[in-house]
Structures are given as C-alpha cells and as structure tokens.
Amino acid sequence: MSHKVNTKAELEQFVCHHWNEVNQWIDSAQSQVPQPLTSSVDVRESKTKFAPVDHNMYSAGFNNICSKDLLHMADRFREAFDKIKPNLKRVGLLPESHTKNKYYLDNLYILKDTIETSDTEVTIFSPDENLFAETNEHFLDLESFSGHKLRIYRAKVMDGEFFCTDPQTKFEFEAIVLNNDQSVPLPVDWKSIKTTVSPSPEVGWFRRQKIHHFEHYKKVADQFAAHFDINPDLIQAQFSHVDNVDFNTKEGLDEIADEVDSVLKRLPEGSSVFVKASQGTYGMGISVVSSGEEIRSMNRKVRNKMDVGKNNLKFTSVLIQEGVETILKYDEAPAEVTIYLINGRSSGGFMRTNPLKGTQANLNSQGMVYRKFCISEVKENCDHQIKEAVYSVVARLSVLAAANEMKEIMETK
After folding, report:
1. For the segment 262-280, what is each residue's pLDDT rounded down to a tens digit?
2. pLDDT attached to residue 313
3. Strands 273-277 and 318-322, sheet pairing
4. Residues 6+ apart with CB under 8 A from 240
5. Burial of 297 (0-12, 13-18, 19+ CB in 10 A)
6. CB 310 within 8 A of CB 279
7. pLDDT tens digit sequence for 182-204
8. Distances from the Cα of 222 to the Cαs of 226, 237, 402, in angstroms?
C-alpha cells in the first residue's frame, strides 16, 4: 500500500517541515486525557524506521540530561504544577528505596534541583520503613556518586496526608511527585491520600504491563499515521506476547518459542527479537534471540535472569518485540536515544551507548555509558535537528499511549 510518506527519509523531511502541525495533532489528542507528569521513552533508529522500544513513567536518569534542557524542564514542571494549584509552592518527592545505588541518588538530586528551579520548595520523603532500618533518626542523610548531599525524611500517613515522624518537621505538601516505579507496592492506601500524586501511584510496575502499553501505542501510531498518510511501519516495531509463563519450571517456553518464530517470519532475514518481561524495568528480564530454538534450549542461568526482576518481582508474561537494529553510533559503539518528557511534552534527552554490545543487543545493560544532547530548541524547518525532531514526535506518541493505558488501568482498578 502506498502512502504520502512511505520511507524513513520522507518521514524525516515531513516531520521537520510540518513540525507545528504534527505537534498540534498530538497536543489535541493529549488534551483529551491526563498525561503522566514524568516519562522517558527509549527510541531505536534503524535503516528503515524510528520505533519506541520502552516507556517508563518513573524516570531515573535526570542526571543524564543537559543543563539547557533541565531549565526547559523546570518551566514544564511549573506549567504542570500551576494546573494542580496556581502558584503551588510545596512539593513532596517520593523516591525509590534502593538508596545504595549512588547513581540513582544523582538522578534524585537533579530531579529535586530542577523542580526547585521552578520556584518550588521540595522535600524528599518516604513511608517505607525498610529505608530507615539502620537508623533511629527521623531522616536519612545520603551522598550521591557525584557528591551531592540528600536528606530523606521518614513519613507516615494520618487522615489522608503524609506527615514527618518528627512533629517539628512540617510537610504541608500541595502536590507529590512519585519517582518510585513500585515494582513492589509501597505500604500506602493511595485511595485515602488527599494530595495530588503524579505520576499516579496506581500504575506502578506491580500493575502495568509492557504488553498493554504497546497495544495502546499501536492504536495511537496507526491513528497518527492515517491522519498524515504515513506508512505506520515507519514508527513502530512488530510485537506479540505470551502469558502464563514460568521460566523456573519451563512452563510456556514452547509457546514463547513458537511466537518468536512467528514474529521473525514478519521481519527481514537475519533479524532478531527481544523477549522482555512484561513488568520488567532497569533493563532486567530481557533476552535477545534469533530463533525459537534459543528459547527451548535456554540454560538455567538465563532462565533465572528471565524469571525474577527488581525487588524479586516474578515475571509471568513476556513481550516479544522486533529487534530494531540501531544505526546510531557514538565513538564506534552502538547507541540509542532516550527522550524525557514532562506532562507529555518532550523536554530533554540523552544517548545510551554500550561498547560491549552489538547493534541488535540490549544496550541497557552492563557496560552502558550515557552521552548528553539537547533537544529543547527543536522547531519547524530546523534541518540540523531533523533526527531529534522525529525522536521527539515518536516519544510524544508513546506518552499519549501511556496516558490511554493509565486511563484504562484507573477505570478498571
């Protein structure tokens, strides 16, 4: 079937020279449903397409964003906060509990600093008592990899609000920014919380599924492509899924193998697929294979890696996704782009590169290195930023899909 935009090169030119019109279409669609406050989207660029391959609502790489984009993000945070309450001033920031990860603490410091740049007071707090297991204090002082000092306050819930366990410390939050993906749910009855929490605590990885996200993304991408007469294959990866899997007992492995072969038949010869745990995060629960037989012959070590993820979350469903072979390189190492978005607007990004991996591999693994680049100044007819423009559009479509996914989860909870 022929389209007005039928090749990757035509897509690049179309987005570049119709930048305002394209983003107005996305703005209109996003206005119909609440957007997650924070998002990050991994985008792969191959010889033939641009495709999102992962989406996270509780982003943990703000420390990899360039300083110019961080200032742009501060403005986006202010816009989002003013929609909650005009001139909002006090925000609580609820982090992950794995505070021994000093790189994560760099992320937390930069996120806090960026929100504070939006003329907002930020207090980091947590109701997770495990975080304070080694102290009797009402707070925990930490230092990030880069030497930034952080203080996390111990919190409890009373009458639908968070309070510090030290009565002398007042929170009085007007909004809460959640930076905890809840692979395991936090000990909080979120329905009782009166303060606005964003992104929603109801859509953590204990509940979300990558499978559902990419089902929603296909719908969004197809609608977008139909509106502008674009070949939809230019902006999405082929995928399928298998449920009721147990890598420990090998239950469902034959079904995964059959589905791997089925997806490969739709792809060019020599392709590979990513088999991803549907609730996996931090690059965990991922195997790259080029035949179903590799699944059937998977050894114990690999099956253990695929069986359990962060916080011992048991994986029981897998996404089988086209391995979009990256053409991007940095210092001769394969690379992929991650776009950060605030309230559905592209606001920053970086390049993830991994000299230990090949162009079809999972780059979010041991050996990865981050390289900053800025996207906040992309505008119409900006040819020298044509790639960044397409990354931004694909990422925005992914967030629109996530918003629809979030709406569906909230309606069925």
Report:
1. 999 999 988 899 998 887 6
2. 67
3. antiparallel
4. 259, 262, 263, 319, 320
5. exposed
6. no
7. 878 898 999 999 999 999 998 88
8. 6, 12, 15
